[in-house]
Specification:
Elements lengths: L9 E3 L19 E4 L8 E3 L4 E10 L5 E6 L2 H7 L1 E3 L4 E3 L6 E8 L5 E3 L4 E9 L27
Antiparallel strand pairs: 1-4, 2-10, 3-9, 4-8, 5-7, 5-10, 6-8
Length: 153
């Protein structure tokens, strides 16, 4: 393990100009905050059960062998019921479009988001490449086919 952070090239699109780049808020934080690149003075109002792709104004060149995971912010989820609809969202290493966060309001009241508001977390994680090999029979385990709730509470 190295003390040097992974360098990720980031392009800030014109509508994201002036907004802070994602960064960890504390030394031990796994995630970096993504902010809303909404037009100044034009907040986004998310009604209950509504969803929207919120722009960040960022394009990233995540290195091969890594992905960006877009996760909810716990405070927004607890206080307002606001979460990432496809959590965690994935930013693939070969994606070069604008990063947008698909937010959904699971709360009972509308939520208003303004330009520059922290809306999600970005976690950079390694990816393991895998290949699926077709076989005639899969070996047994103690659990077997036991699924949801099969191990009790």
């Amino acid at each position: 393990m190295t003390d040097q952070p992974l360098a990720i090239p980031v392009q800030q699109l014109p509508h994201g100009a002036g907004l802070p780049l994602p960064r960890a808020q504390t030394a031990g934080s796994a995630g970096m905050d993504l902010v809303a690149a909404l037009p100044e003075g034009e907040p986004l109002v998310l009604a209950p059960r509504a969803r929207a792709a919120v722009p960040t104004g960022l394009v990233m060149a995540i290195p091969m062998g890594f992905e960006g995971q877009v996760r909810p912010r716990s405070g927004l989820a607890l206080k307002h019921g606001l979460t990432v609809a496809n959590a965690p969202g994935t930013i693939d290493a070969d994606y070069r479009g604008e990063v947008k966060v698909i937010l959904i309001n699971l709360g009972e009241e509308a939520v208003t988001l303004a330009r520059g508001e922290r809306i999600a977390q970005l976690v950079i994680a390694p990816v393991t490449s895998a290949r699926l090999d077709l076989v005639d029979l899969i070996g047994e385990t103690g659990r077997g086919a036991g699924g949801f709730g099969s191990t009790g509470r």
